């Protein structure tokens, strides 16, 4: 039986990859056209990209070309992950000792030739202090290969289960209930108006009205978001809003869950009404502020899961929000400040409720604090 021989460079690659994937939650990414390189990504880490290059670099010209190639690939990753700055750790495993490393902005290049270099590397140990204690550092050969493969497979399987839990199709309830309430309120408004011969008008009694809110009718901040204007035979306002709620609401409810979705919807509606009351100080009705909040929430979710969302954020969702806001400023009768307030409320409330497998407690606390402070500030402006 022939003995399996593992090259020293391959052992070093496995040890580094094991540590970054298992302990630092990096994910391998596929980069076309490269050979003997490992690319790892963690959008929440100090170094968003780690590149492990086992190719031999024998002179300064080859080193410069290698850096040029690295910068090109990093630029593609930066665009994909919607990041302004992508700090990259470039680990070279076979750099000629005569080649001097040239510093590059946002690309930290280091030379590692063995496990001793890992333990001595100041750059590695400053950011990853536990790397020198990696239990696989003392293993070699077939035992190392088996252990690394087994542990990376365990981590990958857990990540896949986490993402499947978030993205798998679930039963949608809250979106349909909210749609039902909005439609029911529209019909009820007309029924009461006709029955009372115009003496009872819910659009007047429960709209987001600045003067009434200042006089203590604070409930209008939410009730007005469930009312819609327009003729009964062609309720264009209601149709547009319910279609948007149907499209965006089902997606977001599926991703964040029923309770969090309801909190985000109501928090967005409230923030939109508050900003509208402070700036416009006029009558306002409609669910569009809350719906813009759902879109803001979806952007926040997509940013944290952008590896799986692909280019949807850049090519579809963000342009849709911008176009709607631009039209809102040009068209008469559109409460664009409710849209902006809802958008802000959607992002902050999503921070506060958190995203499964992504949000940390401190981030949720910060989101809740900022949302509450902003609400108090807007209320102060309303009642000053």
What is this entry, summarized?
This protein is mainly alpha-helical and 384 residues long. The protein contains 16 helices and 5 strands. The chain has a 5-stranded mixed sheet with strand order 1-2-3-4-5, sandwiched between helices.
Strand order within the widest sheet?
1-2-3-4-5
Strand content: 5-15%
What is the N-to-C succession of helices and strands? HEEEHEEHHHHHHHHHHHHHH
What is the 3D form? elongated
What is the third-level CATH name, the topology of the largest domain? Rhomboid-like fold
Distance between the termini: 87 Å
Low-confidence stretches: 1-5
pLDDT averaged over residues = 86
Count of runs of 4 or more consecutive helical residues: 16
């Amino acid at each position: 039986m022939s003995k399996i021989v593992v090259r020293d460079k391959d052992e070093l690659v496995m040890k580094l990859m094991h540590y970054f994937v298992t302990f630092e939650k990096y994910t391998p990414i596929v980069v076309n056209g490269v050979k003997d390189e490992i690319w790892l990504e963690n959008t929440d880490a100090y170094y968003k990209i780690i590149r492990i290059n086992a190719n031999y670099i024998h002179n300064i010209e080859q080193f410069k070309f290698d850096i040029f190639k690295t910068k090109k690939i990093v630029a593609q990753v930066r665009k994909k992950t919607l990041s302004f700055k992508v700090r990259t750790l470039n680990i070279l495993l076979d750099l000629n000792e005569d080649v001097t490393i040239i510093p590059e902005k946002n690309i930290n290049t280091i030379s590692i030739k063995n496990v001793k270099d890992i333990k001595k590397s100041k750059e590695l140990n400053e950011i990853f202090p536990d790397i020198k204690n990696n239990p696989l550092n003392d293993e070699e050969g077939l035992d190392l290969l088996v252990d690394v493969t087994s542990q990376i497979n365990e981590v990958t399987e857990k990540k896949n289960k986490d993402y499947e839990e978030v993205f798998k199709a679930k039963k949608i309830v809250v979106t349909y209930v909210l749609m039902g309430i909005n439609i029911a309120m529209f019909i009820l408004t007309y029924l009461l108006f006709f029955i009372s011969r115009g003496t009872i008008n819910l659009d007047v009694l429960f709209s987001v009205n600045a003067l009434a809110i200042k006089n203590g009718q604070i409930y209008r901040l939410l009730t007005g978001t469930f009312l819609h204007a327009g003729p009964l035979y062609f309720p264009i306002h209601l149709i547009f809003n319910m279609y948007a709620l149907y499209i965006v609401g089902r997606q977001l409810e599926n991703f964040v869950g029923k309770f969090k979705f309801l909190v985000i919807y109501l928090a967005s509606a409230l923030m939109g009404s508050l900003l509208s009351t402070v700036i416009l100080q006029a009558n306002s009705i409609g669910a569009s502020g809350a719906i813009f909040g759902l879109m803001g929430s979806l952007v926040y979710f997509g940013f944290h899961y952008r590896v799986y969302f692909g280019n949807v954020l850049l090519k579809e969702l963000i342009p849709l929000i911008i176009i709607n806001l631009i039209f809102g400023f040009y068209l008469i009768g559109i409460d664009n400040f409710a849209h902006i307030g809802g958008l802000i409320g959607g992002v902050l409330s999503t921070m506060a409720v958190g995203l499964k497998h992504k949000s940390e407690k401190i981030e949720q606390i910060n989101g809740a604090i900022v949302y509450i402070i902003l609400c108090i500030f807007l209320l102060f402006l309303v009642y000053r």
